Amino acid sequence: MTDALWYFARGSGVVSLVLLTVVVALGIGARSGRTAFGLPRFAVNLLHRNASLLAVVFLAGHLLGLLFDPYAQLRLFDLVVPFVGNYRPFWQGMGTLGFDLLLAIVVTSLLRHRIGVRGWRAVHWVAYLCWPVALMHGLGTGTDRGTWWLWSIATVCASTVVLATGWRLMPSFHRFPQRADRAVAEHLRPTPEAQAWSAR
Amino acid sequence: MTSVAQARPTVMQRLLADFGDGRIDTHLVRHGRVPPLDPSQVIGLLRDAGLTGRGGAGFPVWRKLGAVVGTGRPAVVIANGAEGEPASGKDQILMAYQMNLILDGLQLLARAAGARAAHFYAPAAVLSGLPPLLADRRSAGIDTLPVSLHPSPDAFVAGEESAAASAVAGRGAVPTDKLVRIASAGPGGAPTVVQNVETLAHLAMIARYGAGWFRAAGTPDEPGTFLATVTGAVPAPGVVEAGYGVPLGDLIAAAGGPSAVLGAVLIGGYHGGWVPVDPALPVSRAALAPFGASPGAGVVVALPASTCGLGETARIAGYLAGESARQCGPCVNGLPRLAATMTDLAYRRSRPGLPAEVDRLIGLVTGRGACRHPDGTARLIASAMRAFEADVSAHLAGYCLATGATR
């Protein structure tokens, strides 16, 4: 029974990493309100938000499990202060850092209508830092590191994010591709003649 | 629709009192220059005169101007001459005969709104004749602001206020939703005023002759004159000017009187409503409200008693369904369904629950579009179901009261 918390914490950590991978890919997909992965725009955004909140729930399970686990022996401040742990302080600290970054992203997202889009977006950029930090934490400190299944999961997650980021960096990834061809009646669109008139 | 009907005692000639030759010097001899007015004077004058928009919605002009002046930013001011309404010809007539009055009003409004330039949005055929006149007005020192020209597509929804603002901003003549108020819908979010060309011509007259002069016509609640386009079963269809509250019979008489026994009259245009043939019925917002109609942009269509009103309504509904900007579901899907259901009723393809289906569709489309195109279409059909109630029952039974046709 004492092992239950330990197994739960390990499992929820891995699930959280998988969910964060999905969130990053969907976040890139949701960029400037586009359709992605065959989903309509509202679905991309909704999935991105819900998957991220679910990742937070599993992460909370990961932290609480370890806090109360008699084997890990975490102190309360180990949850938020990175690199001061008793066991593999660097790799554990990566996890703490990832949690802090995620906390900042979640809090600013919940307060987005108060702090404004600029501030929110600036903080949201740290998502690109949060995800590799979480991956390294899993591979560096995990009890399951070196197992074939964790390596497989990590490889799939990494390639997903690398592919999504590659798509994002492609020159064809314009800012607002969906707004250009808004569906309206053809005869109402601006014509070259109209534009020539207006330019006179 | 190019003739202007003869004046009659009860109809009143102001904008159409004379036909200008389109030259600026004759215009100045006739009316003189517009006196210099600061923005608060213009707003006060418009409020005292009670001038409302003549494009159909009838919104008080002073409140629109006050809203953009209140922002303290330079506004975008647009003269709207895109008369998408097929049954209306008054803007075309006014632009043909009184362009100087319209341009006077546009300059006055644009200066009051602190605009850096004025915009004229109208069919290309109208705009192509404008540059020489604009050059003359500018060299005569009348136009202090440059006027840029924007051709409007020949489409029903192209004359809608937000479509005009969108077209001038270069985004196409597409109505937009009103989450962003039109007062801040211009290029770069600039405060925007769109006014019908007739409204601007009235403004040019009010600035010269005063609010009291303007209020001498019309009713105390709805002052001033308006341009009506009288068509249908009349021998001389054309544009008539009259004060609000003019008896319906006088408008029809000004177009030569009915050329057949009339069954109903469509007032306000294709987004208007059917009213009974009552020569004494005053054409004003207040008097037409019980019929779900309003003077709108001044359209009056006389329907002969021998023509089926349901058939005519079904035809108009089909036209309106085809004129959708095709951007909102209720319009793209709802209006063709509504038109097809009305057509079934008009051609007496009776089936159980047909009128209930019309009611259901009216409820489904109303208030659900970005613009009021679905609402206006639904309003016309609702008024037809009331005005031709007896014929609805007859059609369900397989015959038509108006045409006498049977199955």
List keywords for this structure.
heterodimer, A: 200 residues, mainly alpha, B: 407 residues, alpha/beta, 5-stranded mixed β-sheet, 4-stranded parallel β-sheet, globular
Largest sheet of chain B: 5 strands, mixed
Largest sheet entry of chain A: none
Distance between the terminal alpha carbons of chain A, to the nearest Å?
82 Å
Computed CA radius of gyration of chain A, to the nearest angstrom? 21 Å
Q: Strand fraction band of chain A?
A: under 5%
Tally the helices of chain A: what do you get? 8
- Please tell me the overall pLDDT of chain A: 86
Task: Please bin the fraction of helical residues of chain B.
Answer: 40-55%
Relative strand content of chain B? 5-15%
Order of helices and strands of chain A: HHHHHHHH
Shape of chain B: globular
Structural class of chain A: mainly alpha
- The best one-word shape of chain A is elongated
Describe this structure in words.
The complex is a heterodimer of chains A (200) and B (407). Chain A is built from eight helices and no strands. Chain A has 200 residues and is an all-alpha fold. Helix content of chain B is 42%, strand content 13%. Chain B has a five-stranded mixed β-sheet, with helices on both faces. The longest helix of chain B is centred in the C-terminal third of the chain and has 18 residues. The N terminus of chain B is likely disordered. Chains A and B meet through helix 8 of A and strand 3 and helix 8 of B.
Helix and strand arrangement:
The complex is a heterodimer of chains A (200) and B (407).
Chain A: H1 2-30, H2 41-68, H3 89-110, H4 112-124, H5 127-141, H6 148-169, H7 177-180, H8 192-199
Chain B: H1 24-31, H2 39-49, H3 61-71, E1 76-80, H4 90-97, H5 99-112, E2 118-122, H6 124-127, H7 130-139, E3 147-151, H8 161-168, E4 192-196, H9 197-209, H10 211-215, E5 225-232, E6 238-243, E7 246-247, H11 248-254, E8 262-267, E9 273-275, E10 282-283, H12 285-288, E11 299-304, H13 309-322, H14 329-346, H15 354-365, H16 373-387, H17 389-396
Parallel strand pairs in B: 1-2, 1-4, 2-3, 5-11
Antiparallel strand pairs in B: 5-6, 7-10, 8-9, 8-11
Helix pairs in contact in B: 2-3, 2-5, 5-9, 13-14, 13-16, 14-15, 14-16, 15-16
